[in-house]
Amino acid sequence: WTVVIGAVAPQRCRRRPSDLLLKRFLPLAAFAALVLLLVRGLALDPTALPSARVGQPLPDFDLQVLGGAYRRSAGQWRGQPALLNVWATWCFSCRVEHPYLLDLAASGVTIYGLNYKDDPTKALTWLEELGNPYTETVVDINGDFGFDLGVYGAPETYVIDAAGTVQHRHVGVVDERVWTEQLAPFFEGGS
Question: Please, are residues 66 and 113 in contact by the beta-carbon 8 Å criterion?
């Protein structure tokens, strides 16, 4: 017999049952979690972006009126409910919604325009060619007022009540469905 000093007899590696379960079911659990996240994401409405401004006064601004030699501030837009439509000539969707905005203006809805990060000369030409649904349009070349308002891009439309408080925000094109379901109720209730 030979004795080897310091040698340890080989031991058989045993796995605990919990290790085996973890190894088999961890990928399955991760896959199920990923599927749940994807399903949740697909169920969200991409136009339902949160707005910190709803329920708060319209942010203060002092902006040049498009085509005018004078400026406008938020306080001068108080007194009646109105839409504030964020638009630009570079915005394809703005061109899509424009005919419906003309119809709304013709029916007596007050619409203020916010020409957002745009060239005022191009904006004036655009309104001359397509018609002007806006009671008044202010120019936000740098996007500062848009930033204060929480604008993500154009088009966006806000409902402003007679006191100058933002009541609702819609991201995307305004059409008959959007008007009927989301915006008109603010005007029918005498906001």
Answer: yes
